[in-house]
Amino acid sequence: MSRSSHPSSTDADRPRAVLVGVQLQGVSDDELQSSLDELERLVETLGLQSVGRVTQKRQGLGSANLLGEGKLKILAGYTGGQGFVAPFVAPGTQDETAEESLEDLEESHFEEGDEVSPAGTVIVDHDLSPTQLRNLEKVTGVEVLDRSMVILSIFQRHARTREAKLQVEIARLVYMAPRLRETHAGAERQRGGIGGKGAGESALELGRRATRDRIAELRRALVGVQREAETQRSRRNTNEIQAVALIGYTNAGKSRLMRGLTNKEMYVANQLFATLDTTVRVLVPETRPRILISDTVGFIKDLPHDLVASFRSTLAEAEEANLHLHVIDASDPMMRDQYEVTRQVLAEIGADEHPRLLILNKCDLLQKDQQQALASEFPEAVQMAATRPEDIVRLHGLIRDFFEKSMEEATFIIPYDQQAKVGLLHKRCRVIDELYKDDGAHVRILAPSGVIEGLGQEIAIPPNPG
């Protein structure tokens, strides 16, 4: 694929990066470009500017250099690298082959008058083996990051709570452990055990052992943090709190929707993984009983395995929720693939059987015929735009109706000398009517059965069925 650049005066000061993608068998041109478009958004979230793309059709990803010789030279043209993996040359000898290859590269790749701003980073849209990573760095002469490392770097930057920071650091260390290598070929070994005999450990072995110890330490700390979070969730469950979780692909508009439903300021940005930590707020206008809304971290395809594992706790709010609002960016051409990715990750963490309301967000960006086609394909979905107040009001009503379907009616008779308990009913339930008779206040309420049972024990007055 030919070089392409995206110059912009606003990007002039941002570090430059070139993207690399391999088109495997069964992957269409559109799928390849969509994957690279997503990678470009990841790169922008990381603070880099994409200045070009290098792609190649290959049978597999097993090649030590990932790309063929010609594509390696093209890639090196972006970075000013040598364009090949130099063979080992004994000290004191001259590598004429390397010099000739570099001359060929300069003659074939750069034309007179070209102004080339070298890219300082190569981003590969696949996971790389340690050998591939090392070889590509030799070819390009710059830092090389694969897709997993980009995602980990973004997670590390956006993590705010202690739990999120611990999870990301564990995933980063697990990813880096097999990629540790000697800083120089002649690294000395530490002395052996008793009496200094034995080969001892090399610097590489010491580094790997230190990494394993650090991972174990972080996991112990994470268990304590997660235990505290579980205690908080248990308290909410004990009080029969009604909960809704916003789930979906990253950048689908969940945080903006959260802002509309809760009237709380949320960090909203047109970036992937703008939200990483789970946030819980109360649905506004408030209902009785109250409904909690949680905004969870977004999903993405090819998520590093260890981050999927960490999602089990990050998405605990989704597992505990009574209702999932599955938010999809209806304006994205890859929305169906993104829908399936979300479903697959939810299945991996055991949270795919919850009641779900499908939200086709950003429908204001679609034409009428596109909206009609989506209505036919997803007849039970809610088409809306989180930026339109009338759509937020409509969604608020749908959430309220969902919970009221499972509520029960009951009547509490509160003696006049215990009227403070009437306020408790107003706080915990939806009061349908309130009549004052000779024996006290007759308060008819609507609430989940568990709330009604708990109130009967708390105010020591058994309710009468509705």
Radius of gyration: 29 Å
CATH fold description of the largest domain: Rossmann fold
- Domain tally: 4
How many strands?
Answer: 14
Principal-axes geometry comes out as elongated
Distance between the termini: 71 Å
CATH architecture label name of the largest domain: 3-Layer(aba) Sandwich
**Class derived from helix and strand content:** alpha/beta
Instruction: Let me know the largest β-sheet.
Output: 6 strands, mixed
Q: Helical stretch count?
A: 15
The strand line-up of the biggest sheet is: 6-7-5-8-9-10
CATH-level-4 superfamily name of the largest domain: P-loop containing nucleotide triphosphate hydrolases
Plain-language structure description:
It is a single chain. The protein has helices spanning 29-45, 69-79, 96-109, 130-140, 147-158, 162-176, 203-238, 254-262, 305-314, 316-320, 335-348, 368-377, 389-404, 420-428, 449-458; strands spanning 16-23, 49-57, 121-124, 143-146, 242-248, 279-282, 291-295, 323-329, 356-361, 382-383, 408-414, 430-437, 440-447, 464-465. Mean pLDDT is 82; it is low at 1-9, 96-114 and 182-187. The strands form three sheets. The protein has a six-stranded mixed beta sheet with strand order 6-7-5-8-9-10, sandwiched between helices. Strands 2-1-3-4 form a four-stranded parallel beta sheet, with helices on both faces. The protein contains 15 helices and 14 strands.
